[in-house]
Each structure stands twice: as C-alpha cells, then as structure tokens.
Amino acid sequence: MNQKPYKIIALSAIITASNILPVNTLAAEIEKPVPAYKDIGQISNQHAEYSLGPEGLKEAMEKTGSSALVMELYALTILKQSNANFNGVTIRDGSLKTKVINHQNIARNNATQWLDILKPKLITINQNIVSYNTKFQSYYETLVEAVDKRDKTVLEKGLTRLSTSITDNKERVDQLLDDLKKFRNKLTRDTQSFKEDANELTSTLAATNSGIPMLQQQIVAYNETVSKYNRILISSAIATTLGPIAIIGGTAIIITGAGTPLGVALIVGGVSATAGGSYGILQAQREMNTARLQIQNISSEISQAQLQVATLTNVKNQTEYLTDTIDIAISALQNISNQWETLGKKYGSLIETIRTISPNDLEFIKQDLETAKGNWENISQFSDNMYANDIKIVNKTSN
C-alpha cells in the first residue's frame, strides 16, 4: 500500500480545518412596519392593534442566533488553525514572515474575545427575553383582575412596571450594540492589515512557484462548497432547534437527540428528510467531494511554500469572514433593540389610553393580555432552546 507524503496529509489537515460560511446569505434583513396609533381615544374597536406580545421578536432572535453560530464557527476555526511556518522558505523581505505570524496571533485574540466575552453577553440578551416572560406571567392575573374590578390605578401601575422592564432590556441591547461596533472596528483594522501583508507574502512566493495560484483557487472552491453545507445545517438548527452542532472533517453536522449525526444520515442514506433542505445538503456534499478530489490531484508534489500558503489562506479567509459576519450580528441585534422599542411604545400608548377612557371601557384589554400571555410563553420556550445549538470540535472516529 502506498503511503501519502507527509505534506499531502498536512495539507488535508489544513483544508479540513477550514469551515467558511457565506455571510451574504444571512444578510437579508427586512423589518416589518409597525402600526401607528395616532388616535388612541378610538381603540375600543381596534383590540388587535394593541398587541402586548413579542411581535417580530422571534425573527430578530433567529437572525441573531444564526450570526452568533456563524461567528463561533469562524472563531473556533481560527483558534484550531496552526501558524504558518515559513522556515526554510526563501523570502526577500524577512520581516513579512514575522508580521504574518503576529497577525495570526492577533486573530486568535479577537476570536477569543468573541467566544469568551461577547457571545456570553449575546446569550444574556436572550436570557433577558426569558426573564421578561417570567415577569409578564407573574403580572398577568393581577392585570386581569384589575380589568375585572375596573381598577385603572392597579392596571396602570402593572403595565408601567412592565414598560420599565422593556426599557431596561432595550438599554442592555444598546450597550451590547456599542460593544459589538467597537469590536467590529478593531476587526476591520486588524483584518485589513493582515490581508495586506498576507497578499504581499503570497505574491512574493507565487513569483517563484507557479503552483501557488492554482492551489489557492482549489482551496477557495472547496471552501465555497463546504460553506453551502454548513449554512444549510446552521440555519436548520436555529429554525427548528434540532440540536448541537459539531465540526467533523471540516464540515458541520447536527447531532439529534438520538445521537444520530443528521447531516451524515442524509448524505449516506440519500433519502428525503423532514428537516428540510436534504437535496441541497446532498448536492453540496457532491460538490465538496469534487473540490477535494481536485485538490488531491494538484497536491501530489506540494512544496513547503505551497503548504504554508494554504495555511495562510485559510486563516486569512476566516478573519475576513469573521469581520464581515459581525456586521450581520450587529444588524440582527439592532432589530431586537427596535422590537423592544416598538413594544415600549405600544405599552406607552396603552397606558395613555387607560388614563383617558372610562373604567367601564377596560374590557378590551383582557383579550390582548390573554393573547400576549400565550405569545410570550412560546417565544420564551424558543429563546430557551435556541442557544442549545452550540458548536463543538470533535474528532472523526470512522473511516
């Protein structure tokens, strides 16, 4: 049996360490218009317009959760990728090697900041939604009783306290938005500097090694097909809360409650699945195998310079996509802030209405409260489950 050269195996390890997702597919954000209440004195016949529930919040949470998982995938990949080692490779400007290694270390620090500091804050924002539901449920009976007793004072006081909680939640979201924007600005500067030095180094090596441009093209082709596969699974995990996500062989799979790797089951079995997108998963897997074969064909005699350029290309791509994805996370989180603001305005309008109408006209609020109670329970459960989808790096145990 022929043994693969060490450098080919090393290249394979580099390629399987790359988990690049296309950020543009997650970028479409459309905010739903919120009804305006210009004549709040005539809402007795417009009960549905006074929604006290989390309208629009679920969609914003899905987008935030998806972007968080995408960023986690990039960050983990950056952390597990080894530094490019250009020892023994002749480079005219020796300082470029030092600069590139420094850029990789900075990229790891940025990845760690996301995983250890910013993502936990994002989860806290999610937990605040659960906490608000708990508060709403605890106030529900008191508010309904106040309506039955025509007690405007108690009703207004309860709604005002809920409105204050809404304001507090929005302020927490806005603070995290500020933190993310500062992080984004640092990422942008670091990534641009990394790209400039990495591109210069790669161009220098390519001038004396004709195989480098072709190798880079094949790496990009492979990463694009892997990204299709990962995107499908991550979006499915968020939308349906299928389970945690694992990285195996450079791709993401969803681990179901029964312990079956959903992605692998779809690919190996080749059958339709209710999880959705099975055809797309199969197609992406076929394209991924084709790209991998192309890489193997051109890497039979890979040089040390080519191997290190492959490493450098993957790390650089991860930092680029991490930087791009932070904008999506910011946009999604801004939507959550907007939803809290909209909800606060609705509460404010309702409180003003209660102050101006007769106690005998309070009955319309009961149905709004009942509907909101159910909606908050549902979104609280969704919020609880959403971050159960976590990303872990695992080793492939089967051939």
TrEMBL record:
Record keywords: Coiled coil, Membrane, Transmembrane, Transmembrane helix
GO cellular component, one term: membrane
UniProt cross-references to Pfam families, sorted A to Z: Bacillus_HBL
InterPro entries: Enterotoxin_cmpnt, HBL
Signal peptide: none
Chain ranges passing through the membrane: 232-256, 262-282
CDD domains registered for this protein in UniProt: ClyA_HblB-like
Coiled-coil region: 281-315
Name listed for the protein in its UniProt record: Non-hemolytic enterotoxin lytic component L1
Source organism (scientific name): Bacillus cereus VD133
